[in-house]
Amino acid sequence: MKIVSFYEKNQKEENRQVPESIPHLLIVEDSAIQAQMLKRILEKAGYAVAVAKNGVEGLIMAKESLPALIISDIVMPEMDGFDLCKQIKADPLLKEVAVVLLTSLTGLIDIFKGLSCGADDFITKPYEEVYLLSNIRRTLDARQFRKGEEGRPKETVDITVAGAKYRIEASRNQIIDFLLSAYETAVHKNKELINAEEKLKTLNESLEKQVEERTEALNQKINEHKLAAEALQISETQWETTFDAMSDWICVIDPVTRKILRSNQAGEGLLNLTREEITGQTCCRLFHELDAPAPDCPLTKMVHTEKRETIEMKLDKMNKWFQITVDPVKNDKNEITGAVHIVRDITENKRFEERQRLTAIILHALNRQDTWHSLIVQVQRITIIS
User: Fold this and answer.
1) DSSP code of residue 95
2) Across the strands, what pairs with 251?
């Protein structure tokens, strides 16, 4: 059975007109450029739109105009989006106004913060126009549907996430809508990530093939005493273009001294150092601030096996995951004279895996009709990579 998301269904309705009674929306955004871009999208879709530049101003304007829906950024001066949402939901005059949080944050903590402050939905930045409009239509429809829930008791759940305590007070339908929105956002972002990974994979395969060709050319020319000098003499222009075009950090290492002889441009962005500062250093010093290699050092393993070695590791000081591959460079006597070190940022891949696990838990719990407290406890067990 194929599951069709709300977003996919609404792609077919991109040009659907807003009902005759035009909903009034309020944008609360401290960035004037982003506020105007969002305002143009909403007005083009037929909504009446007002803009507030921060949470304090937004609260005043909301009391004056009573909008149908408020779209608020989270990170703002004076009053952030979470505090604005809490005040709106605590105000008898404004509590029925739908609130959508607009943010670049998608971690588990942010989901629980959104639930605890009473938000109706959240949209991640950057967003597609069709996806944004479909979420707004869904939130307005859901809010209209829940008007009949006034007076019904709300469920209260106290949870602790990453050492912080949150109290969620919401109706069952509101919790379902919010979690399904989180699930749909994860699915949508996963699709974007898969498409981007496919494009990156194609580009990397092409570039890696060029690197292999250049490495093969190097293997025929270099020797153990002149690795760096020989590398500079072979197709200098083509090598530099290919070497620096790689999105991964690539460096050539002396396997005896373990010092970096050559580094591409990606290393500067990754380490926040110039090539001159990187050259002559060891990977152990740059990554771990150690003089001796770590026990699982792929360079050490490659010297012993004389074959390609690959490991995955997380660097806490960068809060990122990396895949590190070391290939031997051999002379015509099949002796190792150097090593090509490739470092690839796989943090997004790890986040994708964690989102898949979160999606599976939510769907499994919904199928079993677990209690919300049980669902939240299961979700808390997952470690989200930030």
Assistant:
1) T
2) 263, 341
- The two beta strands, 155-161 and 121-124, are unpaired
Among residues 147, 150, 169, 149, the alpha carbon closest in space to that of 158 is found at 169
Q: What is the pLDDT of residue 265?
A: 87
State the DSSP H helix or E strand holding residue 193, giving kind and residue range, or none if neither: helix 172-221
CA separation for the pair 146, 153 (Å, rounded): 13
Indicate if 222-345 has the same CATH topology as 6-171. no
Nearest CA among 130, 98, 102 for reference residue 35:
102
Alpha carbons 200 and 82: distance in angstroms, whole number? 36
Q: What integer pLDDT is reported at residue 284 of this predicted model?
A: 83
- Sole residue written with tokens 């105000």: 91
Give me the residues paired with residue 263 across strands: 251
Would you give the DSSP letter of residue 345? E
Q: How far apart are CA 251 and CA 17, in angstroms?
A: 56
The model's pTM is: 0.44
Largest interatomic CA distance in the chain: 84
Reduced to 3 states (helix: H, G, I; strand: E, B; else coil), residue 25 is strand
Under a CB-based contact definition with an 8 Å cutoff, are residues 23 and 48 in contact?
Answer: yes
pLDDT tens-place string over residues 129-145 = 888 898 889 888 877 76
Q: Which of 28-32, 87-91, 130-134, 364-368 has the lowest mean pLDDT?
A: 364-368
What is the residue extent of each domain of the chain? Answer: 6-171, 222-345
Residues 6+ apart with CB under 8 A from 274: 268
Torsion region of 151: left, alpha or beta (phi above 0 gives left; psi -120 to 50 gives alpha):
left
Residue 371, number of CB atoms within 10 A of its CB: 11
> Does the pLDDT of residue 313 top 60, yes or no?
yes
Which superfamily, per CATH, for 6-171? Response regulator (3.40.50.2300)
The superfamily (CATH) of domain 222-345 is PAS domain (3.30.450.20)
Task: Choose among 319, 311, 106: nearest CA to 192.
Answer: 106
Given a contact cutoff of 8 angstroms between Cβ atoms, the answer to whether 29 and 35 are in contact is yes
Dist. CA 180–CA 186, nearest whole Å: 10
d(CA 222, CA 233): 10
Q: How far is CA 386 from CA 82, 121, 222, 276, 321, in A?
A: 20, 21, 43, 31, 11
Tokens representing 205?
């395969």
What is the spatial distance between Cα 349 and Cα 278, in angstroms, rounded to a whole number?
Answer: 27
